[in-house]
Amino acid sequence: MGDRVLPQLEQSALVRAMGVKRPCDFMWLLGAGASVTSGIKSAGQCVWHWKRQLFLTSHPTVSSKLLADTTDPNVQDRIQRWIQSVPGMPGLWAPDEYSYSIDKCYPRAEDRRRSLEEIVRNGVPGPGYGLLGRMLSHGHFRWFWTTNFDDMLVRAIPPDCPRP
Question: Which of 48, 50, 80, 113 could disulfide-link 70, Cβ–Cβ 3.0 to 4.6 Å?
């Protein structure tokens, strides 16, 4: 019974199927980066944010304004050259770079939580989340999975729509 394999659907067939079956048996999976259009930093941007924090607190005479734009290759290069000189720090794009950077920047779990809350606080759900929020509230799908730590989908459900 649980071994039943469903045929793959083309996008247009999926849209039609979702329109005639409620509650729908489909689920959504959103991966990393889905919230970037909502003003939330990507995982890579978070890593540079934490590495910048580590650099600045280790170099109190360096102006934070000088290193404000962590997307600037020159800023990244300066920070990364220092990072590579710190014993135990993972290399650029190493699998443990994200977890190591936030743990090193904020050793206490409570501070890590607050850092992530700060990153999410000013996010505004983008149009994609608005559509997903309406679809969820109207039963177009019952399940939603994400690797993200924000609440953009819940915040995107319009006040006039039923809450799932």
Answer: 48
Question: Per-residue pLDDT tens for 6-62?
Answer: 677 788 887 788 778 777 777 788 887 889 999 999 999 999 999 999 999 999 999
Q: 99-144, pLDDT tens digit by residue?
A: 999 999 999 999 999 999 999 999 999 998 988 888 888 777 778 8
Taking the C-alpha atoms of residue 56 and residue 62, their distance in angstroms, rounded to an integer, is 7
* pTM metric for this prediction: 0.79
Contact status, residue 23 vs residue 142, Cβ threshold 8 Å: yes
Residue 161, Cβ density class (10 Å: 0-12 exposed, 13-18 middle, ≥19 buried): middle
Q: Evaluate whether 119 touches 40 at the Cβ level (below 8 Å).
A: yes
How far is residue 48's CA from residue 67's CA, in Å, rounded to a whole number? 11
Pairing relation of β-strands 143-146 and 27-30?
A: parallel
> End-to-end distance of the chain based on CA atoms, in angstroms?
28
List b or e across 54-67, with b for residues whose CB sees 16 or more CB atoms inside 10 angstroms: bbeeeeeeeeeeeb
d(C-alpha 120, C-alpha 162), whole Å: 24
